[in-house]
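Chapter review: from sequence to fold.
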Amino acid sequence: MENLNKYIEHTLLKQDASVKDFEKLFAEAKEHKFLGVCVNPARVKLAAEALKDTDVKIVTVVGFPLGASIPEAKAFEAEQAIKDGADEIDMVINVGLIKDKNFEAVQHDIEVVKKSCKDKKLKVILETDLLTKEEIKKACEICIKAKADLVKTSTGFVKGGVGAKVEDVEIMYNTVSSHGLEVKASGGIKDKQKALDLIKAGATRLGTSSGVAIVS
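The token string follows.
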């Protein structure tokens, strides 16, 4: 696949990442013409300045990595990130509410954040490592109702988690694609073959810190 770089959101979410680490990330994103970079909210301004004359999208995360913040806190985080220069928001779903089967509260959580995003795309991180296949499908159905733009597999922060799995991406794609939503695979994508397998399963975005290795 020739345009694999245009699927990749070059990601750096480590809590100990320094300015030098981000400067390297941004330089790599420009060199390889990646679709975007994904950084924590505190680094959005830095990304916006470094990438202002490029087509590289600036993606950030809210309610990250647990998803257990109240909806209003996630919404404020998203709103401020957009003011700082974020093009897209990746929010973490409240997994505990899915386990409780409190699906109205899950939908409300997403809707509150979606409203704060205005015209910016909202991706919802399902944290598939913590969900059954049935819960993945249900979470996707809720995202459709809440008018999210994409569903995303993982934060990459679950201890012992696998991250993006082909079979999970297939479930997500089969549930949301006919409703106009896309799928972002993230977590554990370290080589080209895994990337290609996930794209074949339906992913239109790949969140990975191994973008350079994948395209090289």
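Two observations follow directly from the output. The mean pLDDT is 98. The first strand starts at residue 8 and ends at 12.
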